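chain below, 144 aa
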Amino acid sequence: WRGPIWMPVNMLILRALFQYYLYYGNSFTIECPTGSGKQMNLYEVAEEIGRRLTNIFLKDEQGKRPVHGTSQKFQEDPHWRDYPLFYEYFHGDTGVGVGASHQTGWSGAIARIMHLFASFEAQEILDQSKEKSVSQTRQPVRKR
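prediction:
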C-alpha cells in the first residue's frame, strides 16, 4: 500500500490488532513486514505500525521531521522547527503532511498511540485481560 496515510484508519487498525491479540495471544504470528521472514504476534505488528506512524513526527538522524518534507522554514527556522503540524493525511512513501495542516483532532491521535506503547507491555495487556475475564465469570448471576 503506497496510498495516503490517514490517522483515523490506522487507529482502527491498531484497535483491531489489539482485540485480536487479546484473543489469540502470542501463539498467532504473521510475517511482518511482508517478505522479511520475520514473524511477529499481533501486538508486535501493532507496535510496528505505531512506530512507523510516530516516526512521521520525530526528527531523523539529520534532525529533519518527515512530516515537514522539504519545507526549509518548518525544518530549520528556530521559531517553527520544534512544532510539528498535524495534517489531514500523510504521503504514503515519505510521510510528508498533505491536506489541511490543522487536523489536531485526528492526526493528534498520534499522542495516544505514543502513550499507549510507552505505557504497556504486551504480556501486561494479556495478563490484565485474563484477570478481567476471570473476575467477570466469577460474579454471581443476579435474579430479577
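Strands lie at 29-31, 39-41, 89-90, 97-98. The radius of gyration is 19 Å.
thats it, cya
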